[in-house]
TrEMBL record:
PANTHER family: 3-OXOACYL-(ACYL-CARRIER-PROTEIN) REDUCTASE (PTHR42879), NADPH-DEPENDENT REDUCTASE BACG (PTHR42879:SF6). InterPro entries: NAD(P)-bd_dom_sf, SDR, SDR_fam. Belongs to the short-chain dehydrogenases/reductases (SDR) family. It comes from Thermoplasma volcanium (strain ATCC 51530 / DSM 4299 / JCM 9571 / NBRC 15438 / GSS1). The lineage of its organism: Archaea, Methanobacteriati, Thermoplasmatota, Thermoplasmata, Thermoplasmatales. Pfam families: adh_short_C2. It comes from the Archaea. This is Oxidoreductase [UCPA].
Amino acid sequence: MLFMTSSVIVSAASAGIGKGIVAVLLGYGYNITAFSRDESKLRALKEEMKLKFGREINTVVADLSVRSDLENVVSNHREKYGSIDNLVVNYGDPKVSSFIEISDEDWDYAISMMLKSTIYLTREALRDMIRTKHGSIVYVTSMTVREPIEGFSISASLRSAVISLAKTLTHEVSQNGIRVNTIAQGYFNTDRFRDIMKREIDSLSGMKRLAGEIPLRRVGEPEEIGELVEFLLSSRSSYINGANIPIDGGITKFPL
């Protein structure tokens, strides 16, 4: 069952996938620290969650690529909730471009935003989880790790590294009652996704065209990822560990 005071940190939480995760977890009773670099969107998220659920979330303005910001998130969460019981690492999107056009600066930023942030947040979460002998970590990755897409070399490379990290951690921390899993998201109805659709064609017809390629004939909603994340945090998934679970409507063809 859910620990009655179970807390969770959720990154990149002010919109899109992160917002969907926050909404679902709050509905299940989690104590949430949500962080994002967009202060106005965080403020709107806090107000919306309070109105919808009658409960407040803890919000911190922080950039995933800035270590001092992450240190502030961790200290703020511990001050409010005592310890990090669960961790959900969601990411912003790195640059989408052909490999030859990606600069060293683009790679450096993405490595800080996706990989170094994961390492730091995980290390801090594990300090608490090992002490309390329970906890769950979920990393939100992408279908690009299973089925590469042109222009997504940064995303596929770094998210693959995150999956490898998760698998390795299961052999190091599971004896302490800690599970680590990843999910591989497909196409979801977010502002970012709609912006990408508009580059080729208007948003609605673009989504309809893409949906025709998905076996379920639709793109996903952020809350559907939230439900999967909550399941992986909860004891209902107590024997799922080190898994990379696709949530993509069946669009990826790679069988493993």
